[in-house]
Structure formats: structure tokens, C-alpha cells
Amino acid sequence: MNSTSALNSAAKPDIHICEVGPRDGLQSIARTMPTEDKKRWLTALHAAGLREIEVTSFVPAKLMPQLADAAEIVAHALTLPGLQVVALVPNLKGAEAAMKAGAHKITLPCSASEAHSKANVRMTREQMVENVRNIVALRNEIAPKVQIEAGISVAFGCTLQGIVPEDDVISLLSDVIAAGADETGLADTTGMANPAQVRRLFRRAFAAVGKDKVGAAHMHNTRGLGIANCLAAYEEGIRAFDSSLAGLGGCPHAPGASGNVVTEDLVLMFEAMGLRTGIDIAKLILAREPLKTGLPGEPLYGMTAEAGLPLGFSYA
What we know:
Layout: E1 16-19, H1 21-25, H2 35-47, E2 52-57, H3 70-77, E3 84-88, H4 92-101, E4 105-111, H5 114-121, H6 125-142, E5 147-153, H7 166-178, E6 183-187, H8 195-209, E7 214-218, H9 226-236, E8 240-243, H10 263-272, H11 281-286, H12 288-294, H13 303-307
Parallel strand pairs: 1-8, 2-3, 3-4, 4-5, 5-6, 6-7, 7-8
């Protein structure tokens, strides 16, 4: 099919993409995007077919004023039909706020690097595992339907520590599942991964906790390898990916680690391979407009938006 009719199929997509720009992207920008523009952006992303969006993070406003409107943003996201609303939280207080706001899923960043863990959430790795355990207990008590993902940050290398031993990654991944997290995942927070490393580490993750417990691959394009690393993860069996519209994003506590994988480019790759994402690329490119309005002059990245769809392109 060469029209958007393919996108309206009731069949489950082959590839699941979670858009993280409204959280990962905006936390990395010094300016604050107006709340109404954020809402328009979320609505446009939903209209393009995205059905999971990490919409915000529940952190102290004094530390991250860009996301001070977290509860209001979650409330808007909950009005979008069929959308799984995801919020990132660093600790028990943030988790409680996210649950009370109505988020369907919360993501906890658990750093495989001790240096990054202390810089990012001010906890050791052991304290972070205990944090996961406490949040799971709270979830079980007040919001049993909320899903908890404990993602492993800096799994492929750290700008503060350098090399992160793979044994440390697998040990932490196993610990967060044992602490009660519903799923985990591997994040190339610093953009240091390469495809061979991605294949090897996901293979080890599957062996450690089972394929059903390993969720999304979260790759950054800092050194131009983001798409290649996503393809490597796909070839190992991963079917869920995080990405950011226009490539916004990075970690404030990982110097030099800029640039998430561009959602538009990731969708194009999979659709061109004959794999359904359920996302309309033309509408995805249009979703850049509220982003431009809310953050005028902010650099936007991505080859697909610049070049357009290939002649004769058809959706999977």
C-alpha cells in the first residue's frame, strides 16, 4: 500500500516505538517550552500514530524547571485515546507523584556506572536497587496497574567513568528484576555503543532474565551509530525502541552525550524494511511544527525530514 491506509490496520505493529522527546529532549534544553506548546506537541505526536510517549519527569522544579508542569502534562496526555502515558521518576517521591497523576507506566533510571548514578540520582547502585524495591511496594499498595520499568543507563559506556564492565550491567539488570521491576532495558545514554557490543549485551541480558523481561533499546546518536545500533538490537530480537522527534535529547549528567535516535529516521528504516510501526511519517514530520513554535531556533536533526520520503515509498 502506498497511502496511510496501511497505518489504519488493526494488526499489531511489528515494531513498538516510544517517543521520549517530551522528557529526554526537553530536559536537555536550558529554555522551558511553554505548557500549551507541549500539549500541542503531544497531540501532534499522537495524531502521527505514536501510542507510547514518555511525556515528562517528576523531579523537583528547582532542579529541572523545564518539567515543572509534569502533572498538567500527564493530565493532557491522558485525554489522548489509546496512549500509554509514561513518566520518568528518580525516586520514591517522584514515583508517588507520577502514580497519583495517573501515569500508566513509570521508568526508573538505574545507572550501571557508579559515577553516573551518584551524579544523576545521588544514589549508589545498591541504593538504586533498594529504590526500585520501595517503588514496587508503593505501586502494589496504591496503583497496582502501573507498569514499572527499571532501565539500565550508561550500559555501553560512561562519560564520567569510561568503560562500564558488561558484568556490572548484567548484575544490575538482574538485581532490578529481582527487586520487582516488570521489565528492564539497556540505554546507550552516552552514545558510546557499537553494533557488536549491542548484540553481545542484549544476548547476555536475555540469558540473564529472560527475553520477556527485556524491553526497549534506548540508543543515542552522539557518534552517528544510533540507527545502526537499533538495527543490531532488532537483529537480536528487540522489538521496542525509544527515540526522539528531531533527535532532541541527552543526559544533563553525562557531558557531551547529546542526541537521541531521530524518531522520523527510525520509523523510515523499519517501514522501508517491511516492518510495521503504525506511524505516519508525514504526520510525524508535521509534529515538528509545535516544537518549532515552542522552542524557536532550537536545532532540529534528522535526515528524513530534510530529504523527504523516497520516490515510490510505501508503508509496510
